[in-house]
Amino acid sequence: MEPTDEEMRRIQEQFAMLDLNGSGKIEREELQELLVFLGLDPRDGQLDTLWTVLDTDEDGLISFQEFLDFVFSTGDVSFFTPSELERVREYSQKRKASRAEQTPTPETSADNEEIARLQKRVEELEAEARKRDKVVVQLQTKLQAAREEQLMQKSRQNSKDTSAEREPAGPAPAASSDEIVRLKKQLHDKQYALQRLENQQEKIVEGYVGFLHSLMESSASEQLQNYCDLKTVEMLGRGAYGFVLTCLDKDHNQKVVVKLQSPRWAAVAAQEWSHGSKCAHDNIVAHLQVLLHYDGKSELERKLEKAFDDGIFTGKRPKILPDRYICMVLEYMDRGTAQHLSKEGLLDLEGLAAITRQISSALAFIHKSKQTHNDIKPENILLRKAAAGDHLVVKLADFGLAQWSVERQRDAELMAYSLWCLGLAEPFDHMPSKEERPAAAERFEGKALLKDSRQGLRSALGKVVRDLWAGCTEMAVVAASEDFCDMQLTIHHAKHAAVEAKARQEIPPRLERQAKLWKAVHMASIVRKWSHVDDSDDAH
C-alpha cells in the first residue's frame, strides 16, 4: 500500500526537521538533541531503544526510507504529536540557521567480513565467555567465604572474656579485610573484562545481522511456495515479531507452522533459530526449515490484508507490509497446550507424570548442549496426538529467550512451578518465594489433582517439585525416574475433536501474550545494556 502525496509530504517535512544539519541522514546526536528539547532524558534508555528500531541497516545513520518504514509500521503518518510539531519545527529552523556552515558527516562504509571467519570468532568468544563466567563465580565464592570468616572471627572475639592478659585480635581480621579488598578488585576486573567480551561478541552478531539484511535485499526470492502449498494457508495470529500461519508442506502433505518475520527483527529470528534448530529431540518442537522469501507477487500481502479484514488479526494494521520475510517453518502441534488440558479438567496424575518425564528429558538434552530455555511454562508445553493410540506426545516450544549458559537453576525453578500450577490448576503468574516454597510443595503433595487417588504417584511428583526448587536434582535424574517410566498422557478418544478445536481458538491470544513478553524482554535488555555501559564508563 503506497502513501498518498499528502502523507509523503508530511513525512518528508518531519524527516527534514530531525535532519538538523541537512545532510540527508538523521544522526544520533541530532535525535538526542531533539529528545532533550522535548523534555526526555536520553540516558534512561529511550534514545537507545528508539535508535535500535529506526536504524534497521545499523549503519549508524537513519535514511529517509528507514524513517518512512518506521512511521508506516506504527499505523500513523506523524512521528510527532500535534503539540510537539510546531515546537520542533521552530527549533529545527533555528538550529539549521545556526549550523548552516557545518559540513555533513560522511557515511562510514560497511565492513563486509567473511562469514566463516565470523563464525569461528563467535565460537572462540563464546568459549572465552564461559571460562570467564566460571572465574567470576569462583571469585564470588571466595569473597563470600572471606566475609563469612571475618564475621566468625569478630563473633568469636566478642564472645571472649575481656581480660588484661588477652592479646588484642588485630592481625587476622586485618588480613581478612585485605583479602576481601583484593578479591573485590579481582571480581570487578573480571566482570569488566567479561562485559567487554560480551560487547565484542554483540558486535560480531551485529555483523551477521547486517550480512543477512544485505543477503535478503539482493538474493531473497519466491521460496515459500516451493516448500509449502500456499493455497492451504490459514492465518493463526500475530506473533512476537511478525505473523504466524499454518499450511501443508509439499513433501509430506503435513500441516506445518510458518512464522513470518520482517528483516527488522533478523536478530530475534536468528536467536530463536540458533537454539531451536540445534535441539533435535523427540520432546522438543522441531524447527524444520528457514527461508528468505520475496513476496514479489504480493500473495502473502493479500492474505495478510484479508486476515485483518476478517478480524483474525487484531490491533493496529500496518500501513505498509514488508515485501521480504524470514520464514521459519516449525512442527504443528495439534492438541494445544498443557495449560489448556489443566483448565478443562482433562489432566490426571499419570498425565502430569508423563509431562514431567518428557519435558525433563527435553531440558536434560538442552542442558547437555550448554543451553538454557528460560521460558518454561504450561503455555509453552505443547501437545500432539501420537501416531497410534489416544495418548499425546509432549514437547517443549518457544526458544526466543534461550541462552548459551550452564546456569540451570532458573530452568529448574520454572519447571517446578509449571508442575505445581498444572497439579493445582493455578495460574502461572507468581512463583512462590524461597521462604514460601516448602509450604507450597507440601500443599502440592496434599492436594494436587485430588480426583486421582494414587497418593504414591502424587508424593513422587511432589518430591520432584521440592527437589527442583531446592536445586538438589538434575533433569536427567527426573527423566530417568522409575516412578514415571511407563506413564502416558491420555485423553478419551471422544474428547480429541473438542480439544483440537479449542486448541485452535487459543492460538491467537497465546501469540499476543508471547509477543508482549518477548518485546518487553527485548527492550529491557537494550535499556539494561545502555545502563551497564554507563556504569562501566563511570568506573573506568
Automatic annotation (TrEMBL):
**Xref: InterPro entries:** EF-hand-dom_pair, EF_Hand_1_Ca_BS, EF_hand_dom, Kinase-like_dom_sf, Prot_kinase_dom, Protein_kinase_ATP_BS, S100/CaBP7/8-like_CS, Ser_Thr_kinase
Q: Does the keyword Cell wall biogenesis/degradation apply?
A: no
Q: Which CDD domains match?
A: EFh (cd00051), PKc (cd00180)
Span list, region Disordered = 91-115, 147-178
Q: Name one GO cellular component term.
A: cytoplasm
One GO molecular-function entry: protein serine/threonine kinase activity
Stretches of Basic and acidic residues bias are at: 158-168
Q: What's this protein's family per the entry?
A: Belongs to the protein kinase superfamily. Ser/Thr protein kinase family. CDPK subfamily.
Recorded hits in PANTHER family, A to Z, give:
MITOGEN-ACTIVATED KINASE KINASE KINASE
What is the name attached to this protein's record? Serine/threonine-protein kinase pdik1l-A
What gene name is listed for this protein? Answer: pdik1-a
